[in-house]
Specification:
29 helices; globular; single chain
């Protein structure tokens, strides 16, 4: 049996986690609660009422990622010692912002010349967003002016400026395309913002020109397609909107937002034009996502908080916030973010899937499966796929496969569904059915390395079709030479074919790539034994027992430590 895990479509944390809670000076801290108490809250217990005690408590809270607590402690320092405000405000400002208390962050935002240039730009951005969120937009245009704006805030300030102008009734400023030389984000999303604002101004031909530029080409972005599609729907051009959505769905068939838009357009309905606040919030999301993808998670989180201040109903932002918070280990706060997505939203199924996997990772499979079953009961395809994945993760393999049966139909079903069902059937011991699914999936996508490796490895592990399996695994490794699992499959093929020296060389490389995988270490021990390196074989099998192996691999390692390996099979003993 192939014991390797396989969770196609399992929800993932979307972005790389930050360096854990390291704080340079008084700058950015990691995420915490969705709301924060005001900074005038009382002192921390056990620290007395001294400003220094509160300062230490605040610093400890920042180091632990508890930004709401940090904001409270720094606020207490400010109340106890007004002379310390200049030092404390910068830290409290960042803590409040990342905790989601934008109003407090704007109130205590640093403005002195002693403030670092990046934090001064962030201060201006936060105060502008707070003004735009409360209708006090008189100073927002000045705060967002390009003079003095520095990286990484220059992009967001440029993109928000026309929205602030629209809120202030500035008919000229509202239609000026945002500019930031050499900034690809501003180039693309500035054009999108201008298209949306052209539409609001009734300059429909100019709006459509921009939309066509953005949604053309071979791989238009989701934001551009949804925005242009909404424009077409409002012009009563639903058939064109459907065709536009179909282009994107051809390459991304399970995109929930685009599928929902297509259903709306096909029904003759039209998207309600976003409000100015909603449009401004949408402008910040790609900036946040770009920062997060570049490893600047804290700043990305800050921008998501600003987007949600402008539009608390921005569901993609809540999903991203939840992903970040969970990546920091703030599980309850992440779940609270996912729970903000309403049941009627296209993102609801994704939010429920993330909630379910959060419980699964926390060791509560009962709650995880309950949530997944409830979501799948509505008939949504994505929810059914997620339920199948969770069932597989909980070793309910036959049920996992059966959940996928209604989704696999027609002459050319989705190869990924066949792959997923094949894995579940193989793990359930239903090999003839599994092999048929895996072969069918491979026929639909013959160059997919995961498929090549999984079927090839399973044949190798079953001592079947070894020559063909070897060729398949070689193809997989050529596409993913840094995959320890795929290199292991190749080494195991050499082992099964009796080429033990080459197996040792290849399996050593696999373990170098993934040193913590018990199965790879187990295989390397077997190869060492076959070439007479028995002390090293014993070391590898002992190491397997330290790597939290599954029961099957654990039992194998213990047996081999006690008895070694039996004699190698002769070629005649191999299965055809």
């Amino acid at each position: 049996m192939n014991t390797r895990s396989m969770a196609v479509w399992r929800p993932k944390v979307l972005f790389r986690a930050a360096s854990r809670l390291a704080i340079a000076g008084a700058l950015f801290a990691l995420a915490a609660c969705a709301t924060a108490p005001g900074p005038s809250a009382g002192p921390a217990e056990g620290t007395g009422a001294s400003p220094y005690g509160q300062f230490l408590a605040g610093r400890a809270a920042l180091n632990a990622g508890r930004n709401a607590d940090a904001a409270r402690y720094y606020g207490a320092v400010r109340a106890l010692d007004p002379d310390a405000a200049g030092v404390i405000d910068e830290r409290g400002f960042v803590a409040a912002l990342l905790a989601g208390d934008v109003t407090t962050a704007a109130r205590i935002a640093p403005t002195s010349e002693a403030t670092s240039a990046p934090n001064l730009s962030l201060s201006r951005l936060v105060r502008a967003v707070e003004g735009m969120s409360t209708g006090r937009v008189g100073s927002a245009g000045t705060l967002l002016a390009p003079e003095g704006a520095v990286f990484p805030h220059r992009s967001a300030m440029a993109l928000l400026a026309p929205w602030a102008a629209a809120m202030a009734g500035d008919r000229e400023g509202v239609l000026v395309r945002p500019q930031s030389p050499g900034d690809r984000i501003v180039d693309v999303f500035g054009l999108l913002a201008q298209a949306r604002l052209f539409e609001r101004a009734g300059r429909l031909d100019e709006a459509e020109t921009n939309f066509k530029v953005l949604s053309g080409g071979d791989s238009p972005g989701q934001a551009s397609v949804l925005a242009y599609g909404g424009f077409l729907e409002r012009r009563k051009r639903g058939a064109e909107a459907v065709a536009l959505y179909d282009r994107l769905l051809a390459t991304d068939p399970r995109n929930a937002s685009v599928r929902a838009a297509r259903e709306r357009a096909a029904a003759g309905k039209a998207e309600v034009q976003p409000s100015l606040r909603q449009g401004a919030a949408q402008t910040l999301i790609p900036v946040a996502a770009t920062l997060i993808a570049a490893g600047q998670d804290q700043m990305g989180l800050a921008y998501l908080r600003l987007a949600l201040r402008l539009d608390p109903g921005n569901n993609p932002a809540w999903l991203l916030v939840g992903d970040l918070l969970e990546s920091y280990g703030l599980v309850e706060e992440a779940r609270a973010a996912y729970a903000r997505v309403p049941a009627a939203a296209p993102e609801f199924v994704a939010a429920q899937a993330k909630l379910a996997w959060s419980h699964q990772r926390a060791g509560d499979p009962e709650t995880a499966l309950r949530l997944a079953r409830a979501a799948a009961a509505g008939g949504d395809v994505e929810a059914a796929i997620n339920l199948s994945d969770l069932l597989r993760a909980n070793e309910k393999f036959s049920e996992s496969a059966d959940v996928l049966d209604p989704l696999i139909s027609g002459a050319a079903p989705d190869w990924r569904l066949l792959y997923a069902r094949g894995v579940s059937r193989e793990r359930a011991g239903r090999w003839p059915e599994a092999e048929a699914d895996l072969k069918a999936a491979l026929a639909l996508n013959p160059d997919e390395p995961e498929l090549l490796n999984y079927l090839g490895y399973t044949w190798i592990d079953r001592n079947e079709n070894l020559d063909k399996a070897l060729e398949m695994v070689r193809r997989a490794v050529s596409q993913n030479p840094r995959s320890g699992a795929m290199v292991d499959s190749l080494g195991w093929a050499y082992f099964r074919l009796g080429d033990f020296p080459r197996a040792v060389e290849t399996l050593e490389r696999a373990v170098e790539l993934e040193p913590g995988d018990p199965e790879l270490n187990n295989h390397l021990g077997d190869a060492y034994w076959r070439v007479g390196r028995r002390d090293e074989a014993g070391f590898q099998w002992k190491r397997v027992l330290t790597l939290d192996p599954d029961p099957k691999i654990k039992a194998e390692a213990e047996r081999k430590l006690a008895q070694g390996l039996p004699p190698a099979p002769t070629p005649a003993a191999r299965k055809p």
